[in-house]
Design goal:
Blueprint lengths: L1 H13 L18 E14 L11 E12 L4 E13 L8 E14 H4 L9 E16 L2 E19 L4 E13 L16 E16 L18 H15 L3 H16 L1 H9 L5 E2 L12 H13 L5 E7 L5 H21 L7 E8 L8 H7 L1 E6 L1
Parallel strand pairs: 10-11
Antiparallel strand pairs: 1-2, 1-8, 2-3, 3-4, 4-5, 5-6, 6-7, 7-8, 9-12, 10-12
């Protein structure tokens, strides 16, 4: 009998449900601009003429850049760099300066690789691009203008929402470099013959009015309800097309369930209706449509009722991250109800974090842990 009641409740929940719209996109609620300042050591590797060399490493290199992130994973930066190359003790004397201007693509490796599952303070950026440069030396007059390619990785330690400590290692390749780093002319030197290694320590200063920068923002997948809408419409059509005799037979039972509010409330509170999620996602899976519909229908038929929305995560990842993920899941389900016309004041989000009552080592068990349940009050 209980299975019949549950089945009828599911059917009731699918009746009279309005189509819902997409959840509001919050992907822009983070700062995108930053200023990058760093300094450190350098090592020009080639070309050098005989009897000329620098220390390993040698001071010094400076870099100033401005970065813009299109989202929390990819961006662009423009930076200006300065290198000083001088002779070490057993080298012939020389003093050269190297100036460069580059435009680089930036990839937030920390977000791409989901560092947030184990840390909220360590990040990693990758960068690569092209630019122009100029070499000057006391051993030749004029300037040697070259093209360059630069690539590197930048480790980050977040000190606050406005500042991060950085450590960068970059490689620079010069094309069409007509002089060695000590200033000797090299004929027909058109390929990528120049090679420089730079190691720096610096700061990222984040600009903007929002709390966090893109470097440290985890964007949840906002609930796209188009699949829900299609499935609801399909089920509504199936109900409408049911044979008349079947409708007449079930109608008394249906009315009994509708009028007996405590039966449905008990089933909701006993977690018969749960919304499930894929690993590390905050968007409900499509199969969760029915549970959302039943709870939504109950709230519409009981305007004085309020609802706790309890979010859970599995035990993979840190406690802090699972707390955040369970909150995102519950908030996305809350947004579905709000878009369907339920007042926000009736909805209360409760982030439960990792569900430790479910076995951690079983994938099937972890799948059951990634859910949102409800409590009607």
């Amino acid at each position: 009998m209980k299975k019949i009641v549950i089945t009828l409740a599911l059917a009731l929940g699918l009746m009279n449900v309005n189509a819902q719209t997409k959840a509001e996109n919050t992907s822009n609620n983070f700062n995108k601009w930053s200023i990058e300042l760093s300094g450190g050591v350098t090592k020009p590797q080639r070309p050098f003429s005989t009897s000329y060399m620098t220390s390993t490493p040698s001071p010094w290199v400076g870099d100033l850049g401005v970065r813009y992130m299109f989202n929390n994973k990819f961006g662009l930066k423009a930076d200006f760099g300065y290198n000083s190359f001088t002779a070490k003790n057993n080298s012939l004397d020389f003093d050269s300066k190297y100036y460069r201007l580059d435009l680089q693509a930036v990839a937030n490796i920390g977000r791409i690789m989901n560092f947030e599952t184990w840390t909220n303070t360590i990040g990693l950026l990758g960068h690569a691009g092209f630019g122009i440069a100029q070499l000057e030396s006391d051993n030749f007059s004029g300037r040697d203008r070259v093209g360059n390619f630069i690539a590197g990785v930048t480790g980050q330690v977040r000190l606050s929402n406005r500042i991060a400590l950085t450590g960068d290692f970059s490689t620079i390749l010069n094309a069409s470099q007509d002089h060695t780093f000590d200033g000797v002319y090299v004929a027909e030197n058109r390929g990528f013959s120049g090679l420089i290694f730079n190691g720096t320590i610096g700061l990222n200063v984040y600009l903007g009015k929002n709390e966090k920068h893109a470097d440290w923002t985890v964007i949840s997948q906002n609930a796209d309800l188009s699949a829900f809408e299609n499935k609801i419409a399909d089920l509504e059509n199936q109900i409408k097309n049911m044979p008349q005799k079947q409708v007449i037979v079930e109608k008394p039972v249906t009315n009994t369930v509708v009028n007996d509010k405590d039966v449905i409330k008990e089933m909701i509170n006993d977690k018969y209706y749960s919304v499930y999620f894929d690993f590390n996602k905050s968007t409900p899976i499509e199969n969760s449509t029915a549970a959302i519909d039943v709870v939504l229908t109950y709230l519409r038929k009981n305007p004085s009722a309020s609802l706790d929305i309890l979010g859970y995560a599995d035990q993979v990842g840190s406690t802090q991250y699972n707390e955040k993920l369970s909150n995102l899941r519950a908030n996305n389900v809350k947004t579905i109800f709000e878009k369907a016309g339920v007042a926000s004041s009736r909805l209360n989000v409760v982030a439960q974090g990792a569900d430790t009552s479910i076995q951690k080592d079983s994938e099937e068990a972890r799948r059951l842990a990634r859910r949102v349940t409800f409590k009607v009050k």
